[in-house]
């Protein structure tokens, strides 16, 4: 697994419910702060059109699954402990929370859409708190944490660079390398933050601006307002207008559990479900499903799957590529049809794919072959979403 998305937010906003809905993992869900003490990890799935329909043969996924031509490609999630004001100084579970963020490629930032919680996650009554305030203070806490990393030994380091003629981006990249931030990203952030050309003019504001841009470039996020089932349509519309995705993790979790129990047929992302056996439903279950169906119709689904796919495809800009060992039959050496669906960054090349499959394949790369049109591809050929590719090497 190469893509890791963090589910973040203050305590009690519904992170664990959203995480459970996406991963179908059983985690503790309770109505009090710091339900999540240790981070939970799980696997969820994004949808991709599976090429096996073109081949008119069923595929054999090694990971994930395929339903009616829709391939479910695995993505790893981490649900981290709730963040409170002052977390960058170690308040609450701040140190644990922020350490978990190091590994994530991007974040789903969860806010309480019902506006019922104060900044520490304590219940104060629906509509008593501005949900978007969560997004602002959480972003600020992460920026201050990153700024603290940059500031450690900064003055001494900058003076050394100025006297010895070193590169600022090289020095800064070593300070944030543990976050997976490279020198190129630091260079882009320096330009975006418009830092003073003279190192003597740097101050706290300079470092914070730089940290903010580094965060946005290296670990982008989307804001997701949960508890949509407790909101009016007007409240949902207003939150969407302010840039949030509005979802019901509770309803998505209920649908997935009902599907797993064989009560309904429901696939993630669909806007309706089918009841399989009315006789098995208790009256309260039927009533709950009726409420969920009305919500799905009004909101075009629960919004949960859309949120996940937005951050993967549109924010992190990933594509799905299908490597094979036989370009004619799209199989591996064991005869499995389209066994793997790999997530790659937009702009990734045939050589990048070879290295992702195996280091030896990349080091001994000769050429690649497009499984659809059998065209020969060089190492710098950019891949496209849905490509079926064979790698040929000298090894």
Question: Would you give an account of this structure?
Answer:
About 3% of the residues have low confidence. Strands 1, 2, 3, 4, 5, 6 and 7 form a 7-stranded mixed beta sheet that branches. A 5-stranded mixed beta sheet has the order 11-10-14-12-13. A two-stranded antiparallel ribbon has the order 8-9. 39% of the residues are buried. Helix 1 runs parallel beside helix 10, helix 6 crosses helix 7 and helix 7 packs across helix 8. It is α/β, with parallel strands linked by helices. The protein folds into 3 domains: 219 residues, Rossmann fold (3-Layer(aba) Sandwich); 75 residues, Orthogonal Bundle (Helicase, Ruva Protein, domain 3), CATH 1.10.8.470; 75 residues, Roll (Ubiquitin-like (UB roll)), CATH 3.10.20. It is built from 14 helices and 14 strands. It is flat and about 80 Å long.
Q: Beta-sheet strand percentage?
A: 15-25%
**Ends apart, CA distance between termini:** 25 Å
What is the tally of beta strands?
A: 14
Percentage of residues assigned to helices: 25-40%
Structure annotation, total helices: 14
Mean pLDDT: 89
Rg calc: 24 Å
Tell the overall outline.
Answer: flat
Tally of discrete structural domains: 3
């Amino acid at each position: 697994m190469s893509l890791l998305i963090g589910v973040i937010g203050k305590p009690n906003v519904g992170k664990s419910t959203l995480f459970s809905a996406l991963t179908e993992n059983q985690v503790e869900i309770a109505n009090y702060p710091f339900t999540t003490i240790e981070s939970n990890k799980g696997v969820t799935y994004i949808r991709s059109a599976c090429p096996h329909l073109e081949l008119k043969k069923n595929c054999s996924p090694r990971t994930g699954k395929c339903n009616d031509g829709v391939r479910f490609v695995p993505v790893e999630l981490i649900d981290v402990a709730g963040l409170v004001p002052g977390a960058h100084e170690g308040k609450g579970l701040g140190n644990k929370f922020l350490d978990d963020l190091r590994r994530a490629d991007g974040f789903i930032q969860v806010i309480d859409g019902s506006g019922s919680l104060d900044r520490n996650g304590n219940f104060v009554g629906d509509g008593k708190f501005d949900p978007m305030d969560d997004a602002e203070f959480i972003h600020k806490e992460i920026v201050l944490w990153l700024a603290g990393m940059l500031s450690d030994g900064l003055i001494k380091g900058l003076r050394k660079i100025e006297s010895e003629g070193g590169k600022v981006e090289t020095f800064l990249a070593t300070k944030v390398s543990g976050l997976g931030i490279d020198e190129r990203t630091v260079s882009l952030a320096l330009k975006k933050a418009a830092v003073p050309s003279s190192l003597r003019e740097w101050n706290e504001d300079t470092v914070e601006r730089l940290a903010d841009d580094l965060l946005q470039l290296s670990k982008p996020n989307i804001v997701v307002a949960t508890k949509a089932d407790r909101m009016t349509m007007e409240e949902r519309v207003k939150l969407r207008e302010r840039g949030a995705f509005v979802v019901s993790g509770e309803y998505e979790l209920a649908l997935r559990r009902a599907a797993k129990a064989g009560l309904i047929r429901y696939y993630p992302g669909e806007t309706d479900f089918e009841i399989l056996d009315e006789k098995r439903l208790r009256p309260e279950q039927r009533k709950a499903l009726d409420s969920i169906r009305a919500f799905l119709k009004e909101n075009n689904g629960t919004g949960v799957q859309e949120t996940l796919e937005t951050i993967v495809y549109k924010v992190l800009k990933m594509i799905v590529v299908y490597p094979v060992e036989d370009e004619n039959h799209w199989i591996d050496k064991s005869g499995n049809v389209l066994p793997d669906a790999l997530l790659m960054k937009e702009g990734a090349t045939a050589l990048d794919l070879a290295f992702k499959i195996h280091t030896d394949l990349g080091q001994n790369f000769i050429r690649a072959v497009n499984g659809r049109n059998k065209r020969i591809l060089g190492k710098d050929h950019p891949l496209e979403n849905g490509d079926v590719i064979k790698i040929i090497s000298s090894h």
